[in-house]
Amino acid sequence: MRRDSIFYKLFQQFPPLLFELLKHPPKNAESYRFDSVAIKEPRFEIDGVFLPPVDQGAGIVYFCEVQFQRDEQLYERVFAESSLYFYRNSTKFIDWQAVIIYPSRSIEQTNTHPHRSLLNGEQLHRVYLDELGDIRSLPVWVALMVLTTLEEEKAPAEARYLLTKSSQETSSSSSRTIIEMITTIMVYKFEALSRKEVEQMLGITLKETRVYREIKEEGREEGREEGREVMANAICRQLSKRFGQELSAEIRDSVFGLSLTVLEDLSETLLDFTSVADLQAWLAAR
Prior knowledge:
The chain is an alpha/beta fold. It has eleven helices and five strands; from the N terminus they run H-E-E-E-H-E-H-E-H-H-H-H-H-H-H-H. The chain has three domains: about 1-130, 3-Layer(aba) Sandwich (Trna Endonuclease, Chain: A, domain 1); about 135-210, no CATH class; about 215-285. About 50% of the residues lie in helices and about 15% in strands. Strands 1-2-3-4-5 form a five-stranded mixed sheet, with helices on both faces. Helix 8 (about 210-245) runs parallel beside helix 10 (about 260-270). The protein is globular, with a radius of gyration of 24 Å. It starts with a helix and ends with a helix.
């Protein structure tokens, strides 16, 4: 189940969701924008960043990490990324805070002693979804986060409850968005089930929702990507035999970076190559 992407979809749909998890959210939480940023030298990708509104002066930037598997260097990475981004953009913000979302305390990094000051301070907020309370007592958007953690025997009943609750308590547009998120969570949670089985479980028709169309397209993309990798592997083997030597890692990376269409061209052209230099020249031209 791809929980990271599900959580970031939730944040994209409803950025204030992050601040519903905090005891002291900013007063302008409704105005924050969810984004992802890249930091060069060294290269960092921060998927969950909540940026304050630019028209209200310097504010607090929030970093969010969703962690459903143990990572023994998580805090090292989060603090390095957050501090470096804040350093590079210190004129835009007055402070930074980080939020780490765990399914439970059992997933947390073992060695926390080197980070005791930050962990016990006000800049880091650790959220344990299994400690937020009963899913039916939570706000709908927070309940969606908890839904991702439920065991398969409990999830269907709670998903149906949230579908009913959202239709009764939210606007029609918000209700449709919540339905999309619930179906996304359940389709990924029950990957082994057929479309009809998931429909029966939830009491809705998935083909009428955007998530079903996206998942079908995702499946086609994964099929194309798998075919591209198979072809790239086969071409590298053929080239190694033709040149009587293993290809360098740099050349293999170049081949694997080609699109399926270009790989098809290469498969027809490789018989004309007499040396690695010919291959390098061909790759350089593209």
